[in-house]
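Because discrete structure vocabularies remain unfamiliar, we first show an illustrative case, written as a sequence plus integers encoding its fold.
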Amino acid sequence: MNRAAGVLLSISSLPSKYGIGCFSKSAYEFVDWLKKAGQSYWQILPLGPTSYGDSPYQSFSTYAGNPYFISLEDLIEEGLLTKKECAALEKDAVDGTINYEKLYKHRYPVLRKAYERSRISENEEYQQFVREQSWWLSDYALFMAVKDRFDGKPWTEWAQDIRLRWDNAMDYYRRELYFDIEFQQYLQFTFYKQWMKLKAYANSQGVRIIGDIPIYVAMDSADAWANPQLFQLDADNVPLAVAGCPPDGFSADGQLWGNPLYRWDYHHQTGYAWWIQRLNYCFKLYDVVRIDHFRGFDEYFSIPYGAKTAIGGHWEKGPGMDLFSRVREALGEKEVIAEDLGYVTDSVRKLVSDSGFPGMKVLEFAFDSRDSGCANDYLPHNYTENCVAYTGTHDNETIAGWLNSITAAEQQLAREYLCDAYTPKKYLYRSFIALIMRSRASLCVIPMQDYLGRDNKSRMNRPSTVGINWKWRLKEDELSTALQEEIRNTARRYGRLNWQWQDELDQPKMPGGNSGDSAASES
């Protein structure tokens, strides 16, 4: 990576009139805004359809896209919906937040109307998409249709014949739910078409997309239902053990995620075919792929199935470089960011080093005794070039909120490191951003909330909690020209301005013509 900067913002957090960010005009305007702010990267959260708890890290599929992100404005322009039909969704919308319950109840009926008017079966582009993506789409569409038939219950609670995918049951539901299956395929076709159009536009503006994939799949997913042999399940497809994290300073009981663990011996025997296929697909959707919980490839935390907390779990050995050597052989050199946070051992450090992937540095961890890692790893003077630096991630407090949550002694330590005893606390977030921006890290990615100086009311996720997360959304007027100039000046000051557009954005003002910033704007 060249020396650059980017912004972390979930698609769901974009401004929109229908209750959740999506691939509408506001997404394109945000790309334009990033370009003018001199940014080279837009990092997003996983794009998959969310299940109970609304977490993008617990998805019904590792391949499918979230139908909530489909632009209703585009469907109106196509003549498949009317503004009147979408008015209820507009009425449901609340500025700055997301109401997932209302989305679930009201959005799908509107999307169903668009499908029923689309005559999609006559669309050759759709037919080609279904053929090319059948290796995952067929199972996913059937999974979602059957899930609706069983009132949204997890597949582990379905009737035995379809839960265990008996041939006669599969044939029956494919016939019985034909139009429901086609509806799901239509949603994925529309999602994919709109997303690839947005990504192409971002790339044309010099903005690259950093995608995010969870290391694990959800138990209640088409992946686990269709491919139980990949996971540590018994003969009845009940998990033997599940994923999580051990207790630490942030959680006394640890984190019990509940995802099925991989049967790594099986993956090794297949040459890691599933992983190669998964990553190959991701590199078509994104320019760079961030792999969440990368340390799980070195060692993963195994918790007995049925446990109430993560306290009784233990570490087991993962595939290590064997997996990534096979991936490199199959796919060549690809851009990956390894999320190597948490309790990092020497063997985890070696895996990240051997892979060649940049790891992550989170500034908050340098001054927070609650973190289980080594504080020295996160002090900016220790950063290497081959890393990606963050003030915080979607799982952390905002930088302004974090400063109020750490102890007075830790606040003093941070100020001493900054050599700043005078800046009022409410403005210190700017000093922290500048601190990592001037580090050696090739790439710095700042959450949008931190650029705005927001407190923890704007936090995206609080691990180990359900029902209060993933809701924060930008308000349209927050993407101001003043903030844009501030971000661009910071990127320029520390040599991170988007190289592709540097000349265009910084050209001197010419009489009677368009212009970028004058040199005086630096002061």
Q: What stands out?
A: The chain has 20 helices and twelve strands. Confidence is low (pLDDT under 50) at residues 509-523.
